[in-house]
Design a protein that fits this description.
single chain; alpha/beta; Rossmann fold; Dna Ligase, domain 1; 16 helices; about 25% strand
Amino acid sequence: MKPTVLMVTTSRWFPTARLAVALAKAGCTVEAVCPPGHSIALTSAVTRTLPYSGLLPLRSIAAAIAATKPDLIVSGDDLATCHLHGLHDQAGTSESSLRALIERSLGSAEHFATVDAREKFMQAARAQGVRVPDTEVVGNRDALEKWITRSGFPSVLKADGTSGGDGVRVISSAEQAERAFRELQAAPLFTRAAKRALLDGDTRLVWPALERQRSVVNAQSFVNGTEATSAVACWNGTVLASLHFEVLQKSHASGHATVLRFIEHVEMISAAEKMVRTLKLSGLQGFDFMLEKGSGHAYLIEINPRATQVCHLSFGPGHDLPAALISALSGNERVAAPRVTENDTIALFPHEWLRDPASPYLSSGYHDVPEDEPELLRACMKKRRGQSLRDFVKRYQRQTDKSPSRLP
């Protein structure tokens, strides 16, 4: 009997749908709790979707768990992980099976607080001898001024609980620092929360706005270099499979990666293994790095305690995360999917295409188009006005020389 995986996501992030397909191909039944309108419902992989409520997040996730009775939970974003940690804390002794499920899926509960706080995580990494930049919480303007006096410019400010570059600012002056600190710490405006709820059906900001929740802001030393990222499948503190990439292109200066290059970097591999072991992590986890200019040293800058946008990619044995995870869950022999491409450069779909439909990476690299999921393709077409599926397919075929039979 196939194990059941419940994917939990609070946002309509397209890579979550790609991961659902990869997990199904790895040999499990996939169900999901997600916001209405998520593209995950368009895949052929997901057997059922249940509604996520930003107004009643823990209740909606708990209801989905009760309905699906999963063998494993996979978190699709940082807020989903925070919800799962909160659900674990909220569960009483009578709900030991729920607590055990969350720990089996994410790792040891004794380290949830470290995973949720940037400063604590960086302290834990430093204690394990991992190369990290100085990081500390700046709770007010006085603390920020002391950081600047000690560390100088440029520096980086980061808000806890954010991802995709939304809560990151590189500061180069006192004026920038004060403005960035004010923006990152501020509670969401109620007008913004109401607009997103009414127009987009996104209610995640309603409670933070009503309760005037301020974010914890961290200051971090700036590392001059190139961004890199790792994704791992792990089980009880052991890395089962991993992917490591250098970032070649981003959606914008502080945004998410759109083009990556597959690499084998000893320091990145070692750092990921140390942190997985130290925090006794399980499931799918991500780590972000800066590769220092000149030395090439890898500085670990944060953890992404959830599936990242590359987790669906397979680069063969040891580099197929879904296959490794489902093998550990089921106890069956691990059979990795074939390497998706011999090209080390990956243009992530639809993000690089949305950034620039004429990007040279779409032809020089491997354009990661979901050829076997036509409904996902159609959904992505709506993100760029004036681009029909037929037009996209024609351009894709010119760039890749793919046969028309490979695409809808």
